[in-house]
Each structure stands twice: as structure tokens, then as C-alpha cells.
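Exam revision sheet. Question 4 asks you to relate a sequence to its structure. Input first:
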Amino acid sequence: MKSFGFLSFGHYGTGSAPEGYGAKAALQQAVEIGVGADEIGVNGAYFRVHHFATQAASPMPLLSAIAARTQHLEVGTGVIDMRYENPLYLAEEAAALDLLSDQRLALGISRGSPEPALRGWESFGYEDPSEPKAANMAREKFDRFLRAVRGERLAPADPQQFGPGASLRVEPHSPGLDRRIWWGAGSAATAEWAAHQGVNLMSSTLLTEATGASFGDLQAEQIDRYREAWREAGHGWNPRVSVSRSIFPITTDLDDLYFGRRSAGQGDQIGIIDDTRSTFGRTYAGEPDRLIDELKADAAIAAADTLMLTIPSQLGVDYNLHILESFAEHIAPALGWVPNSQLRS
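Answer key, C-alpha cells:
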């Protein structure tokens, strides 16, 4: 593990704490967490994207606000649901934000997870008659998005202005952004597909496999297969690989109240998502010395270069920064962490 960031699911609304925690508070506090994380030396701030839900949705305004108030922090997503996106408009927005942030954007994109709306992408104006989960449409859109980000000329030009046969690329263009695009993969086969596309791997918070192996071992196998596919593809540069974990160092009585007393004996979980038997990772909570030993034994964390800590954003700015600072001070150095200012210097 070279770098770590936080991954926020952006929950707000009824059932959230404290009372009255709505979209405005959630967004404004996300910015403040990002600012504080940058000062700690955290490497990245990433946000899940869900539509028709009381969660973070349109990420670009939020990422822009965080980027404008930070110096080193990478800003990104984990993940954008490509089924809901116009690929060329997303490429325009991504390039503009990347240029404004001095190349600190890193977008995680995927087919997306189950949403509250039934085929909600159709309400956004996109349809895929070929299959109900619209995975084919997501990949086709991603291909067009990636070609735009890479500067391909995708639009025929007006011949009266440019002469016959000319074509235009999406503007603005941010060179190198394509090397900071990730595909969120929930299986080894999808990870191999991402390698062939020439994009980084964002290993999912769940895997659509349940073989009896631990979540970390399943993820490590996925990462191995991704890297082997990458070598076979011969892209000529080294990709990044991220994994996500819920990790809570217990350093105060409040930590123990929130996480210590309910974490004993908690391990990986098996469940059904999208009609597929899947493995969900465990929550790590404990005193720092114990956590270091447990995290070093997690094969996927050892294999990945980027670790994303899922944070309980509803618990407020101060407490979330406490979690990040505790991890940075007591645990991350033992795992090989390099603070953000050093990675970008």
C-alpha cells in the first residue's frame, strides 16, 4: 500500500445522525472532510454515486469544490454508474476538472450497483433493450468516453468551416487523464476486461464469488489475474489498483462505543446481490497494533497500491477526521504509506 484515501457513500436524510442532516449538510461537510484530509496528508477523497437515493449523486460540483480548497488531495469517484451518463459530456466535465485541479482527478467508473429506481437510467433517457441490467450499454458508453478522454476525433466537422472529411475532438482535453481512469470490477473476469481496456482497477467492495476463500484472498486472486492480463496486453505503463476496507482504529472511548464493542468476531459475509451469491469484506476495528497485524495479513491490501477507507460520513467532520488521522498516525506508516505531498512532489 503506497497511498490511502477515504471513500464516502454520502448518505443523508431520514435516519441519519445528527438530526437534520440533509443534502446541504452532507455536501458541505464532505468538502470540510476533504480539506482536513489534505492537511493530514491523506492521498485521496472518493465518493460513491447513486441516483434516486438520499446519497451523493452528481459528483463533479462536489469534487470541484474540494479540489478548489486543497493542494495535494486526489479527488475522484468510486464509482460513477455509466448507465446514467452521456459519455462525451462526462469527458468534457472530467477534462475541465482535471485541468482546474492540476491533474488531481481520478474517476472510478463501472456498470454500477443496484439502484432504488427500476431501470432508472431509462428515466435519464438511456435504454438498452438487449438485457435488463444494461451492462452492455455501460461498456459501450465507457468505450466512447475513454476514446474522448484520449483525444480521439469523434465528431464530423462542419465542412463549410473545416473543409471536407475533418473531424473534431471533445474540448477541453487533459493529457494523461486516461491514466487516471479506473473501472470498478466485482469479478476476476471483469478485472481482466478492464486490463484489456488499459484502465486502472478499482476492486469492488464486494465480489460476485463465494468459494469459501476469504474476501482478501479472492481479491488478491482478482488482482493477480488483472495484472497478468495487463502484461499480456502490453500497454507500456504501470496501472494502479485500489481496494476498499472499513477500518476503525480504537484509540478513544468514543471509538470503542461506536465500533469496538460491536466488532468482535465479525468476519466476511456472504449475501445475494443482483441474483448472484457474493462475498462482502469484514470490518476491521481494534487497537492499532492488532490492526497492523491483521491488515498486513490481508493479501489484497498487500497487493494493491491504493487503500480506500469507507467512512461514516454522517458522524460529522471532526469524528471522520479523527478516524483518518488515527489511521495516518498509528497504522498507515507500517503498511508503506507515502503522504500526499511526497507522492506529488
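Marking note for examiners. The chain has a mean pLDDT of 90.
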